[in-house]
């Protein structure tokens, strides 16, 4: 517990002191929300008749949360391994679970702040998002989504040996996934084969669950299915992450 607390505090201090990381975690995804929200303000998706903001706000929020989880843990594990910090931690009675749990708690805190910030901006009259009464159900969806994407970030951080490699691999995963999962463009307007392809991507279910909770875009069953699938992704990716975790580039 003392090791977990020390790692959590160190992670928090390092994160809050890095202005570049703070900007790209919170401001950069928010720019997408503002730009798309203003461009499509008052417009509806022809295929469904729903306002664009109903897709844009939950979609960008989901992508921002997942992106932060992947990049946050991926860069940290790569840097700690490269600088032999993980090797030093291993020489203490600190288990892998304490290392990953400290990053997990930080990722959950970042996700909570992102969600509050995104929803607050989307509720402004300029964007016009109207929350559904089921909005609290977005919480378990976000927690499961962050868990799945954090596990994905651990895998990326375990294999990448340079910051450039982390950025390249993470971007290759997250940017195409954003478009294929409906974060930036409604799935209803995509070809059928792309909608089918999106069903194998965790971001699709994070989008669906958050959208259903915040905007009422889906039934309770749809939100439950999203949670179940995200839990499955979290378990599978988590098992792979634990299997591939490395304390050193030499082992």
Task: Outline the fold blueprint.
Blueprint: H1 2-17, H2 19-39, H3 53-82, H4 85-90, H5 96-122, H6 138-159, H7 163-180, H8 192-197, H9 202-215, H10 220-244
Largest pleated sheet: none
**pLDDT below 50 for ≥5 consecutive residues: which ranges?**
none
In total, the number of strands is: 0
Coarse structural class: mainly alpha
Give the ordered list of helices and strands. HHHHHHHHHH
List keywords for this structure.
single chain, 251 residues, mainly alpha
Nutshell version of this structure?
The mean pLDDT is 85.
Account of the protein in words:
The protein is mainly alpha-helical and 251 residues long. Helix content is 74%, strand content 0%. It has helices at 2-17, 19-39, 53-82, 85-90, 96-122, 138-159, 163-180, 192-197, 202-215, 220-244. The protein is elongated and about 60 Å long.
């Amino acid at each position: 517990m003392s090791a977990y607390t020390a790692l959590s505090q160190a992670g928090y201090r390092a994160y809050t002191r890095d202005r570049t990381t703070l900007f790209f975690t919170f401001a950069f995804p928010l720019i997408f929300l503002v730009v798309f929200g203003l461009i499509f303000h008052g417009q509806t998706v022809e295929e469904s008749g729903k306002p664009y903001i109903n897709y844009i706000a939950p979609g960008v929020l989901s992508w921002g949360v997942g992106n932060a989880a992947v990049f946050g843990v991926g860069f940290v594990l790569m840097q700690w391994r490269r600088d032999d910090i993980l090797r030093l931690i291993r020489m203490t009675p600190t288990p892998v679970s304490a290392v990953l749990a400290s990053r997990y708690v930080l990722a959950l805190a970042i996700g909570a702040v992102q969600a509050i910030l995104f929803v607050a901006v989307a509720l402004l009259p300029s964007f016009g998002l109207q929350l559904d009464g089921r909005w609290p159900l977005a919480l378990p969806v976000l927690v499961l989504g962050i868990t799945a994407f954090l596990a994905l970030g651990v895998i990326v951080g375990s294999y990448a040996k340079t910051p450039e490699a982390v950025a390249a691999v993470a971007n290759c995963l997250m940017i195409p996934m954003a478009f294929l999962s409906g974060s930036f463009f409604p799935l209803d307007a995509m070809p059928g084969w792309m909608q089918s392809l999106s069903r194998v991507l965790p971001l699709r279910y994070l989008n669906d669950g958050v959208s259903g909770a915040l905007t009422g875009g889906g039934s309770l069953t749809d939100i439950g299915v999203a949670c179940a699938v995200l839990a499955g992704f979290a378990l599978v990716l988590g098992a792979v992450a634990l299997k591939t975790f490395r304390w050193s580039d030499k082992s």
